[in-house]
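User: For my dataset I need records formatted as: sequence, then structure tokens, nothing else. Please produce one.
Assistant:
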Amino acid sequence: MSDSGSDIKAEGAFYRKKLLLSLIIPVIFVFLMWLVKIIEILFEIDLSGLGIHPLTARGLSGIIFSPFIHSDLNHLINNSLPLFLLSVALFYFYSEIALKVFSWTYLLTGILVWFGGRDAWHIGASGLVYGLASFLFFSGIIRKYYRLVALSLLVVFLYGEMVWGLFPGIYKNVSWESHMLGFFSGIVLAVWYRKEGPQMPVYEWMEEEEEGENGREDGGEKEREGER
């Protein structure tokens, strides 16, 4: 009884620690987003010039800085909560590869927008939001692991309406290119990292079943050889 109780406590402590570690980067990232907006308001400056301006040298820095810059508080609020929740889910469920996925989603989305966006300043973290949502959805489906598939369905339930942001003309003054290219980045990374990170567990009965099938196939081949 005491052993089982201590095991439960140890397991609980492990998951609490894992959750706390999963919060670190999302909290820092969202904090920096808000810090930039506070600086803009306090000093009455506009940092949108640090966004992405496609195919221009001055717009290259936006690949790094644009996710931290937002047009107003509504824009910032609309990006903060989904970015926080999706990135926490990424770092919790995909802890082994989360930093790589987050970093590549960040960079790949920005690079693609610089190459493929329209002639305008592209700012905000929405491309990263779409990239993370896309990765979490498609990665769960590709891996066929029921826990990750459940996470995929949860992403659809919470953020399914985001699909409308992929098309031009649906929302005004929105970089639909960032949404579309972030979504594409998530798909690419879900496929690229499909063999890394959490995988569907293989149970003993599944291995025994496979061995039995292989044995039957080998026996059949030997019988056919004997007949010859």
